[in-house]
Amino acid sequence: MLGAYLPILLLVVIAICFGLGAMVFSALVGPKKPSALKLAPYECGCEPVGSARERFSVKFYLIAMMFILFDIEAVFMYPWSILFKKLGMFGLVEMGVFIAILLVGYIYVWKKGALEWE
Amino acid sequence: MRLYLSFILLLPLLGGIVNTVAGRLLPRRLAEWLACTAVAASFGFALAAFLSYRTPVTVELFRWLTAFDFQAPVALYYDPLAAVMCLMVTFVSTLIHVYSVAYMAEEEDYARFFALLNLFVFAMLTLVLAENLPLLYLGWEGVGFCSYALIGFWYRDEKNATAGRKAFIVTRIGDFAFGIAVIWLFRMCGTISITQINGMGTAVPAGAITLLGLLFLVGAMGKSAQVPLMVWLPDAMAGPTPVSALIHAATMVTAGVYLLARMFPLIGSSATALAAIAVTGGVTAFYAATCALAQRDLKRALAYSTISQIGYMVLGVGCGAVTAATFHLLVHAFFKALLFLGAGCVIAAMHHEQDIFRMGGLARRLPLTFWPFLAGSACLAGFPFTGGFFSKDSILAAAWLKGGALYGSLYLLGMVTALLTAIYTFRLVYLVFAGPPLTVPPPLMGTPTPTLPHQGGGSIEAPRLMEAMLIPLALLGLCGGVLNLPAYLGEGWLAGFLAPVPGDGNMEASSGLEMVLQGIAGVVALIGLAIAHVRYSGERRARLIEAAVGPPSAMVAFFQNGWYVDALYRFLFVRPYEALARFFWTRVDEGVVDDSLDRFAALLGATGQGLGRWTNGRVSVYILSLAAGAALLLAYLAWVVL
Amino acid sequence: METFAIPAINVAAIMPETILSVIAMALLLLNVFVKSEQKAYLGYLSLIGIVVTFVSVVTGWNAPASMQTAFNGSVLQDNFALFFKGIFLVSSFLTILITDQYLQREECNHGEIYPLILLATAGMMLMASGTDLMTIFLGLEVLSVSLYVLAGFNRENLKSNEAGLKYFLLGAFSTGFLLYGMALTYGATGSTKIAAIATFIAQNGYVTGNPMLVVGMLLMGVGFSFKVAAAPFHMWTPDVYEGAPTPITAFMSAGPKAAGFAGFLRVFLFAVPALKADWSALLWILAVLTMSVGNIIALSQDNIKRMLAYSSIAHAGYALVGFAAGNAEGTAGILFYMLTYAFMNIGAFAIIVLVGKKGEANSNVSDYAGFASKHPVLAVVMAIFLFSLAGMPPTAGFIGKFYLFSAAIKSGYVWLAIIGVLNSAVSVYYYLRVMVFMYMKAPEEEFDWLKVTPPIVVSILLSLAGVLIPGVIPGYLLSLAQRAISM
Known about the structure:
The complex is a heterotrimer of chains A (118), B (642) and C (487). Chain B is an all-alpha fold. Chain B has 26 helices and two strands. The termini of chain B are far apart. Chain C is mostly helical. Chain C is 76% helix and 1% strand. Chain C has a two-stranded antiparallel sheet with strand order 1-2. Chain B binds chain C through residues 62-68, 601, 604-605, 607-609, 611-612, 614-615, 617, 619, 621-623, 625-626, 628-630, 632-634, 636-637, 640-642, and chain C through 166, 169-170, 173-174, 177, 208, 211, 214-215, 218-219, 221-222, 226, 231-233, 235-236, 238-239, 278, 281-282, 285, 293, 296-301, 329, 332, 403, 406, 426, 429, 473-475, 478-479, 482.
């Protein structure tokens, strides 16, 4: 019975080996010539300014969260559309309820002004 | 029936609650009216229940706790015994409530008084109607509490409060035995229903029945002031007179007799228990009669007479004559309430003077009190053809019929007591009502001499309302005999009605024998009257009163102080108990218990603070302890299970 | 291709949840169109919604078996579930009654609080009627997510923020335990349906060689223990209860705790009864730890909300005593206790809401000094609630404890009952301390900011009735609780 899990075990072992191997190998083989520029944190090629531990505006999070919500809504429709004929009226109503619930949330965030950037 | 019974109970309770909660806010008239109406209506329902009575019924009002093996339903049982008791209690209570309105007219704290009085009626009715022992016990304790609170009603006087406490503590001894009996019965029979327990009969081992009978007897001793637990009742006279009449003469003190009658089917099969009951009753009757002979306080004399009469009832139960005992209980309730209420009129008229040696000649001044009082006295003394005569005689006849050395001597003792009863009763009548009004008031030992009201020009009269209440009681006392006429005069109604009450002795005296016995009793009563007449009228009365200024003779003092039983108990029990209590208080309680508890509490507090620091606000610590807890539980499971 | 059968949809079985959710969403929509000073109307609307839901709960009582199940046996609205739903509705009703005044005082009058409470209640209900581990989990998450937001609802208050965040972090952590336990149980038995799990165990016998099941059970136990705040998983309680808005604290200590017990009981009594010997022993330990830790730490608390938080831990311990007993009396006792606890605790919190000042000020025990001389009626009411919490007759708290402890004795756990009684003796100290301050200290303040509004009066009166009536005549409620567990 446990034999069925053997590929998973193998995958885990390989993943660990690969990760460790890459780190160890680069540490052993790579040349090390540190300079101030090289040691600076990488930030899209820009000049690093101030501390990295800054507070981000909550708007980013809001947008991200709402993106996920509506994204999932879309994802949910795929299996439904595949089984649309089989599910028939029942499926249609269920999906309607689902979308209606999300719609309520949509109206709420809209009216609350969460969709406006400024 | 269910409706009637619930209302019988509910109305006094309601009255009591309203008066407790809002009594002081209500106008005085309304509070009084409420209390009286509640009881009077309760009497009405008792009457209705009585009239519609067919067979004994059990009514379950509601269940209090149902979920366990132990069921505690609030169930009532209405049988002839309960019926007559209900009628008597509500009737007498109604009269006394009305009487109290006049008696307590100057009392400020009327709401508390009427609330307690109503609650007392409720508790007493619960006791009477209870179908199971816990409920009966509830009523039993309820009347005990109300009695305590009413004895100490004028609690600002230390003496009254002490009397209340004494009553409570002494009866508690009896309650304790009763409580043991209840629990034991539940353990043994698995039920608490009185009817079921009484139905068990032979299923209960004989030895256990005897012991149970004795336990119930001790319970009855406490509540009904029987030897040796009788010391509280004379002191209980510290309460207001209506209270003495209702609780300490008519109703509560007879609860012990009622209990014995209730449980008679069970305990009646034990000859030993019955003999113990009979002896207790006989000795008590005699003891209290001797004490009553020498009392100077009107109410104390009546109190001793109550003890003595209850002794008769207990003797009746001990002879197996439950009907006779119940009969005497009813008649006694009427005439003793009457006597107390009469005494209350006298006391009120004399402006709270209770020493009979300082009264006299009141027959002409208080005729409306005098005649009913005389009727009551005739009943108490057992004058032929009064209620008291028939009831007392039926008990003595039962003792005679039982025969044997024990019951024979008890019969003789009863006869002697009857003689004494007649003497002390008419001693009271002569001293209070006959003779000239006193001119030289002899001081009651040690007290300063106040001017007597009827010399200082104060008026002597009792409120009409109070006197009016005496009349129905007098009629009932006098004619009470009709309730249960001896066989030769017709059918005994009460005996017929009470017939379903099981366990009554089936001894029927022949009419001839009964007549002879009653003849003897009548003659004894007359002899008593003659003796009282010789000793307490005219010349001898005056000399007696003069002599009373000095210290009483040894024998008089002996009787007056109730055979010094109080002192004996003080020496035997109270002192050692107090010493023990002091020891436990200072050494054990303060030294060991309190101290260790203090230390333990301090320890707990410190532990709490220490543990409280564990919750320091760091989420990491929280998560760590959460995980650690899970790990510990896992480890435990691994240890135990795997 | 497999034929696909749509499971029978029985809306009657999820009627209460449906009603509440729909109303919650409607309120959410309404909320954005309503002016700030009119938010109280949302509260009244939600009260109406709760009453309607309650009616549907009452009509569902003793419904025929076919009407009870839905969604392929994932939901079972039996009397057990309905009793718990009653408890949840009572606690949310009482909570909403005291919410408005609090929000006005704290000047954070956001209408979202009402839909959130309703959604939390719906989640609790789903938890109580779930007979599939997944349904229970779903309910739990709906409840928890709503509660995380509610705990941090007072946005301007740092402590409230802290409470929300801490609750979220620790709750997520404990949810992990619960889910992992469910997964292991599924792995061991092959089903997430409680009935199927029970059948599996009954058929295969309980084998000690099945550690996966045991560990799964244990981890679920840890998850639920966290929800009911049993030691040693109680750490979040004091901080969260202290920081959360007072009405929400009241709500959390009554509703979600009961919900935790509903799930706990459902899983342990119905799914793994065969393992009773093991989990009884575990619960024994949990109960003793919970009672003792709660009571002992409560002794040294000064903040009344924090004190009641520890007291709420202790009360969970008492309920665990009944759970450890594992018999019908114990289970019925938990139901009875949770209901009456909702009344007494929310009642006490209603007074705390009244006494508190803006910014959660004035919530120390010493702030109650002389309260009785200024507001005698409120002080008496508070005293009654505290007496009930301490378990004094004639209050419901006494009957509940009596019932739980006697259940333990009946199961032979005499020592557990003794420890319980000792613990409640300890607890009397800190409850009485409040009364000492109320009655025996001179007032330091005038308490003139106190504003007794009708909703709070209603809440207090209902709580009083819920504490005193079952305290004097417990028979009816007890038999109701008993019928709820006999199926």
